Amino acid sequence: MSNLIKLVVNTDAGFEALAASWRLLETQVPQLLPFQTYDWNHAWWKVFSDSSWYHKDELAICTLHDNGQLVAVMPLTNTHVGLHSLFIYRYVRPFGADPNLTEIRAPLALPAYDETILQQWEDLSRQETFGVTEFQVIHTKLHAEQFLASNAAVHPLQAREIPNFILHLDDSWPCFKSRLKRNIKESLRRCYNSLARDNLQLGLQVWQGAEAIKPRLNDFYALHAARAGATNTVEHPDYFAPPQHRAFMAALLDSDFANRMHLFCLELNGRVVAMRLGFDMGEELYLYYSGYDLQFARYSVMTTLLAEIIQWSYTQEFKRINLSVGEDVSKTRWGPSVTHYVEYQCVKNNAWRKNLGNSILKMRKLRRKWSEKKSD
């Protein structure tokens, strides 16, 4: 017989008291994401939570317990803009409001409780008494759409789809390779042949845990910055340039999460030319950010590194490789499956809050365009 209890944890002590039960839940959830773990979220709160006289982040960790066991957890920040008791604007959103360090911010739940944990968004909306609250609902597209369809008190203002690409490792590397499309097969052939032609000996080093990764982290940052400076490929910023972002990585390496962390290094004649971070999530290897030496770009070293990681993953008996989010050819060419997540910006469903919420979104877009124009 089910005895379901909903609790909202809003103190640091209460957060830390969840550690053991949260980590136990991680072992029971299929396809666990790094961003759902206790250690990721605890490190994030320590580094990114903000508090000042006009802007205050508060904990609002929604939990479900069934017969005394933690079965779902959704870590939220309750951010007030204005005086705390008379806020003009409030933003309730999942942990991970950072520039793309936390890529997927879905709640952690046993499959039977996925929809139940989302119901707490409506519970939170009922607590609104003054000002406007913006709710950021994130989950797989199916569950998020079902929640909004059955909860009329929450109104979606806009949506952003988040595709997540996953490789399934069946059979063996030769079988996997045989099923690839012609273009990636040809690309792999050229990668390995070009190295042999120029007498470059390939090697893969895999470093695991804090003791092995910390001494090499600055090399990773340097290669990531070099990749961010490349102009003839998909462009992205240097995500680890801000000191706060490096502080977050340091916090992860000082936590139990460090045991999940792998740093993959592609060497040519003993020189490291490409790196990529990965996280061991049990049956799945989650591949995170990367970087490479632009002097070796003509050898397509990132394609080679991924091919080497896939082969290594077979030896480690991983069942899946998560290529992370964002649709680009470096992922889609491998023929992955896609899990669709969606992020909804919502407000309480009444006329003036919908109008004010839409006005705030328009102001944000204008500010973003102005910032982009200024940077150009």
UniProtKB/TrEMBL annotation:
Annotated InterPro entries: Acyl_CoA_acyltransferase, BioF2-like_GNAT_dom
Pfam families: Acetyltransf_6 (PF13480)
Gene3D superfamilies per the UniProt record, alphabetical: 3.40.630.30
Domain named BioF2-like acetyltransferase: residues: 184-328
Listed name of the protein: GNAT family N-acetyltransferase
The species this protein was found in: Undibacterium umbellatum
